[in-house]
Structure formats: structure tokens, C-alpha cells
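Task 17 of the worksheet. Students: predict the tertiary structure of the chain below and write it out as C-alpha cells. Keep your answer in the requested format; marks are given for formatting as well as content.
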Amino acid sequence: MSLLKHVGTIGGLTMVSRVAGMAREMIFARVLGANAVTDAWFQAFIIPNVFRRLFAEGAFSAAFVPMFSKRLHSDGGIEDARSFSDDVLSVFLPVLIALCAVMMLAMPWVITLLGDGDADPATFATEVDFARIMFPYILLVSLVTLFTGMLNSVSRFAPGASFPILLNLVLIGALLFGEYAMSSWGWTIEQVGYSQAWAVTIGGVVQLVWLYVWTRVEGFRPKLLWPRITPEVKRLSIIALPAAIGGGAYQINTLVQLYFLNQLDSGAISYMNYADRLNQLPLGIIGIALSTAILPTLSRFVGAKNKEGTDRIQSDAIELSMLLTIPAAVALAVCAVPFVTMIFQGGRFSLEQAELTGQVLAMLVLGLPAYVLVKVLVPNFYARSDTRTPVYAAFISLAVFVVMNFALIADYGVVGVALASVVGAWINVAYLYIVLVRRGYYTIPLKLVGRIARQLVAAAAMGAALWFARDLLTGWYSAGLFQRIGALLVLVACSAVVYFGVAFAIGAIDKQRIAALTKKREP
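Model answer:
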């Protein structure tokens, strides 16, 4: 199956998930707004997701998928793969249960370490409650990640790409119920926050059932055995540990960001969350989809010592990612306040809050190409079982992020925190690429550099067009639903027509290469 088709499957379902997530955030903003309760909820939601990403984006993406795939396609076939996955599951589950127990007991100290220990006692108690209610989600979604890795190894990408949709649907249902309860039964914002917290864990159960059914459909039938450290499980741990540490650097970055946001006025965490939701839309659709799709193919080419194939896949991924990411970043930067106003403003989320969130978004998306490039470059290391280099890159990026925060937060507040994230992301990309070049793994071809430069020209033309178009529709951004949709469609259409029109005219898009991406290739 072609790279473009894999990316289309993952990206299409991820787009549905991101749109559902966007709908969830729109409803969340209108129902709950931006205040101490929403800050507490978002902070509590981030904590289990930090640990989720350690497994989803670290250990299993780096170690489990190549090891499981190797067994699946070896002489042992599906039976060998089943045995390996059962051994991993049987060790993995007790570790997760112990982690949940320890973290739930230690949650008051965790919240204190995140910089909110001097909060009002009632607010602090709410933060601890929210975090304890939501933390079991890590156990559920980590098992989902294991099952997703098994399915990805047989190129069954759809179930793993679609499971986030289920959580969003459960949360949307809980929000609509909460709005009804506020208007009919007099519920407070805090009570709705509690219902949302419980909805996270319920959504995790739904996701787990969904993936378990699909693993059985594919014939894996996972079983829980008595835990035993087999040589394969031990090797998985040895490979995965540096990846988990590397992922930990990114997640420490998230927690450090929470620490700095907690030093600011109430609402800062919420503003960053709403802005990052728009930033994550192209990142999830493009970066994560490409990263997931190219890792198995890169692993096969590297294993076959096919450098030409490896370089081709890496170049294809970079070209396709920048073709879509650069215009997304420019459009979001130029129209940040209009987009935030159209999507989030209303109900308990004011125009002033929308403007501040837009300022955060305009800064945050300057790092969007860097975030995507990290996702695209890291698989080149993972395919070689090199999980240490991304660790070094991540910790260097983290160090830069911390220093930048201390330098910027006093003068620029939440916008300064966003700028620190941007600088750290570009440092990460620079380090990864320099190492790839020095080791002879990959060097960007000059033709690709030229096409990316032309993509930047096309994006600049698009940005200029949007700069003038956005002011013509000012009155529509905070108007009724149909005016908002109309303004959004006009801006998106303007972006697409100008960018792709100029891109085709100046040769920023290689039509032959795009056509080649639709063809099936064998290593």
C-alpha cells in the first residue's frame, strides 16, 4: 500500500477526531468558559495524558511495533507474535496498576509540584479530585496503545486512528448533559467539571472495548498470563527505556509549561489549551499520520540496507508534510484572532478572552512546521533502533524551553510561554537533522530544498491575501452561526486558492512525485 494511502487513512480519521475534538472544545468554552475550574480541569486532564504519551509516542512506537512486526513476519508467524504480545501485556498491566495507585495517592504533592500549591484550598481540592478521577484513564488508554501497535503491524491503521473519536463523543455528551443540568437543575460550573472528569474515564473504557474487538477480528486474541520477564520482554524494556525517557523530556516540557502557566492569572492554562487545540489540528492530521505511516516502511528499508528507499521515503514525508504544514501555520498566524473568535467565542467565553487566546495561537503556530518535522525525522532513528538520539534532542529542547520561559514570562505572560515552546521546537529539529547528516543517515536533496523554498513563497502570497481578506469580514466573526461559517469558508477558500494556485505556478508542487506517492511500492 502506498505512503499516501496510509497517510490518507490515518490522516482522514485523525481529521475526524480533531474535528470532534474541536467541537468538544467549542462546547466546553461556551459551557464553562475560562476560569479557575477550567484551569483545574485542563491541568488534571494533562497529567494522565503526559503518561499516555510516554507509552503511545515513546516506548511502543519505538520498540514494540518493530519487534512485534518482526515476529509476525518471521517463520513463527502469528503464533510467535501472539505469544510475544501476551507476555508484554501480562507484565505491562501490573506496572500500570501500580503506577495508578501511587499517582492517585501522591496527587496532592503532584499538584503542588506543578506550581499551584498556594492556590485557594477549595480550588486546590478540586484540582486534586479532578486529577484522581481522571488518572485511571492512563491504564485504559495504554492498553489501547498496545492493541493499536499490534494492528498497525498488519497495516490495519483505521481502528487505532479512530479511537480518539470515541472519547470526544463521550465528552461532548457529558457537556451537553452538563449544560442541561445547569439550566434545569441549577448545577454549578464546578459540578459540570466533575461530570466531565468522570466522562474521561468512561471514555477510556469505551476506547479499550473498541480496540480489543478489533484485535480479535485480526486474529490476535490477547490473553492475560502470569507475569514473566522473558528475554523478548527484557529486550523490549531495554529498547523502550531510552524512548520513554525521550518521550519523558517532551512530557516534562508539558509539565514545566503547566508550572509557568500556574504563575500567571486565572485562565492562562485555558487560553493555552484553546490555542493549542487549533495548533494540534494540522499537527495531528499531518505530523502524527506521517510518523505512524512511515515507521514500518523505514524499518523494512533499513533492515534490507536499502538506503535509496530509505532516503526516498524520508524525502517524501518531508515534502508532503511541509506542503501542507507551511500554509496551515501561515493561515493560523495571520487569522489567529478571527479563527479563535469564530470557533470558541460565545456563552461564557468572552471576546476579550478570544483575543488573548488568538495572540497565544499566533505565536504558537510559528513552531508548527518544527513540531511536524520532529514527528517526521524521529522515525529515521527509531527504524535503526536508535532511541537515544531523540532523547538528547528532547532534553536540549527542554533546557532551552526552561531558560526562555524565565526570560520571557514576566514581560509577555502566556504569549511568552508560547514563544519559548516555539524556540525549543526549532532547536529540536536542528539537532535531529544535524545528527542525521553527520551519521550519513539522510541529507535533504537540493531539489527538495528548492521546492520547500517555493512553498514558502506560495505561503507568503497566501498570507498577504489573508491579511487583506480578514479585515473585510470583521463583523462576521462574532455574529450568528451562519455568518461565522460563511466567514470561515471564505478565509479557507481564499487560502486554498491562492496557495495552491501560486504553488502550481512556481513549481512548489512536483506533480510527478505526488503521483508516485499514490503507487504501491515494495522494498
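Marker's comment: The chain has a mean pLDDT of 87. The chain is about 85% helix and 0% strand.
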